[in-house]
Design brief:
The protein is an alpha/beta fold. It has helices at residues 25-35, 43-51, 55-62, 64-78, 96-105, 115-122, 135-153, 165-182; strands spanning 14-19, 39-42, 84-87, 108-112, 156-159. It has one domain (14-174): Rossmann fold.
Amino acid sequence: MSRRYLPSDRPVTWVAMAGFMGTGKSRVGWELSRRLSLTFIDTDRVIERVSNMRIPDIFELYGEAVFRDYETEVVRRCVRLDEVVVSTGGGTVSREENRRLLKARGPVVVLTASAETVFRRTRRNRRPLLELGDPEKRIRDLMAARQAAYLDVATLTVSTDGRASHEVVDDIVERLSQWASAQPRT
């Protein structure tokens, strides 16, 4: 059983999860929040709750630009919070403003997985950006297009390929502890 942290000894009190769809941001972020005794926030769920619409419906009715505007507003609000793990949507980091806000607030863990793994994990769910043409090719193209943004925002990059979520969380906690130890004391 992995150690749960008390508020006085956890390595961070705010962390964002980023990465492509299907890399495990929601699952790993939720488990990380439990381990660190932090509140879990999934930005996609917040958008759905506030808009009273599912994300595919927002894309269909209003388009991607409106969805990205909602996303930016949620990011602006999340960076003002304390004691949270924030799981962002796969395309959140495509906007420079979102990357700037997230990096300024605290560590950003970017989860990665192969295109094959992403396809396997997402194929049964409706994903608006994958409904055009060959989904596996679309995944590879989108991953390539966003790669620079993920690298720009990443404090840590962690692969989820072939790993159980608790192993990924163990890795993240260890690396966040190392990162926090290297930060200047204020």
